[in-house]
Design brief:
Oligomer: homodimer
Shape of chain A: globular
Strand content of chain A: 15-25%
Helix content of chain A: 25-40%
Chain lengths: 176, 176
């Protein structure tokens, strides 16, 4: 953990493309300054995301996934979905409170909150107790107001135009 | 250059944080799938951006800067600012038309256009002539309507809340 830094809470939300990639790019940039970084991905798993391969090249930069490759049924999440999200949150707590990291990204945490896979009070508590130097980044649509309230920086991405509308499906290297 | 891909034109614009980092994260992700990538940064130079260091770890991923470390005076850009932007555009043309890259990012190209350091007609022409498989990404505030028009995907980032407002200055690993 580097000292003499001011760590803030960044949130990337909204319906536009670029929330996860903004966090990944932020982590990539920070790695160039020797930050110790972990990205904890909620609700994502196994699918061959490019970042999982790319990160292997960069010292001090880790990505862990706590989800299944399938979509979560919001009205009826599987037991495994709930278990994995719980595990992800416990891991988030561990790394944040360890004071060993310079940057922690909780990818899709806002969606996990919206799907009630993790608890808002727990996340708020964790944010309040983060080490002052730690840069904490939460991504995902549907960020609850309470999270926006407590964040230092909130960027909302708006989808002005999307090629999915033109019938192009999710592509390797772009969407995953 | 990989085949069997559909390359689109992505634009990240707006006043929110996360435009350059979204493009960097996109490139980082794509690198995990073996894409050959170049990021050409307009109006940026010499300042120790983390991405310049981080990229050294990743095979097939290059970043080049075509700008000065100082801000460009919009009403009266220096001869060197104009020269460097011109060089950057020539390089962009070269790499795009070479058909050797899978992804080209023209970072801050929208601002260079807004500052009249590069010509809109030239950029539109280049976009129209890009190889079909190439993923082309333009970032920066003030994207002209003609660029939005020709793009496949447009994400506008809105700054809902920013810690600069709380008096925190640009920080190593975060803003650069």
């Amino acid at each position: 953990m580097q000292s003499n830094k001011i760590g803030t809470v960044q949130v990337y939300t909204g319906d536009g493309k670029g929330k996860t990639t903004a966090a990944l790019g932020q982590a990539f940039r920070a790695s160039g300054h020797g930050f110790k970084i972990i990205v904890i991905q909620f609700m994502k798993g196994q699918i061959k995301y490019g970042e999982i391969e790319a990160v292997k090249h960069i010292p001090g930069f880790t990505i862990e996934q706590y989800g299944l490759p399938t979509f979560v049924d919001k009205d009826n999440p599987s037991k495994e979905d709930v278990e994995l999200a719980k595990k992800g949150f416990e891991r988030a707590k561990e790394v944040i409170l360890s004071n060993e990291y310079d940057m922690v990204v909780l990818d899709e945490a806002n969606v996990a909150l919206d799907y009630c896979l993790i608890k808002l009070d727990d996340v708020i508590d964790l944010i309040k107790n983060k080490p002052p130097n730690l840069e904490l980044i939460l991504t995902g649509r549907y960020a609850p107001d309470e999270i926006l309230e407590i964040a230092d920086l909130v960027t909302k991405t708006n989808e002005i135009k999307h090629h999915y509308q033109k019938g192009i499906q999710a592509r390797e290297g772009i969407e995953y």
